[in-house]
Amino acid sequence: MNAKTDRKVTPLPTSNAERMVLDENGLEAAKRSLDQGAVTPSYGPWREDIIKLLNDSLATELVCVMRYKRHHYTAKGLASPKIAEEFMVHALEETAHADSIAERIVQLGGEPDFSPATLLERSHADYDDSSDLKAMIKANLIAERVAIEAYSQMIVLIGDKDSTTRRMLEAILSQEQEHADELSDWMSA
């Protein structure tokens, strides 16, 4: 057999729809509507859906901050000083997540929803006021697992529709997975 004759020949594309070319109409549209900042026509109909997903995630992060801070201040027991310290570390990291999400919402032309009246309704995670250290760890582990699932689903939903948001969510997801691993280790200790 001859290697040259065994290769498949891929036909060249015959139309612009089959070729990798930029959409000139989209480029022209990007020159207009300057008041929309980074939001260009490529966001298509998904921008509002992405903003809604992000606002729900913002609510989740804010509820997590409050839960972690409450647990930080109320943790008691022999292991509590070290775990309480970690609860505060997690609260600060969740605050950074919320800040990133709020900033991205604004970049997309939306308004971050910090309304306390609807926070729990929009949050994927629950608030917890446990006083037992083991129950606190379990509540936080459940919340982290819910966040991991929510962010994983959002990353798939967004796909290539908004690569900036997807990358931000992937970074947040990585940290949520670290939190869940730590909490899981504490559950078994």
In helices, the fraction of residues equals: 55-70%
Largest sheet, in brief, is: none
Whole-number mean pLDDT: 87
CATH topology descriptor: Ferritin
Radius of gyration from CA coordinates: 23 Å
Derived from helix and strand composition plus strand pairing, the structural class reads mainly alpha
CATH architecture verdict? Up-down Bundle
Strand content: under 5%
Fold and architecture overview:
By secondary structure, this protein is mainly alpha-helical. The protein has one domain (45-188): Ferritin. The protein contains seven helices and no strands. It has helices at 3-6, 24-30, 47-74, 80-107, 119-122, 133-158, 163-188. The termini are far apart. The relative contact order is 0.13.
Secondary structure blueprint with pairings:
Elements: H1 3-6, H2 24-30, H3 47-74, H4 80-107, H5 119-122, H6 133-158, H7 163-188
Helix pairs in contact: 3-4, 3-6, 4-7, 6-7
Provide keyphrases for this structure.
189 residues; mainly alpha; Ferritin
How would you summarize what this structure contains?
It contains 7 helices and no strands.
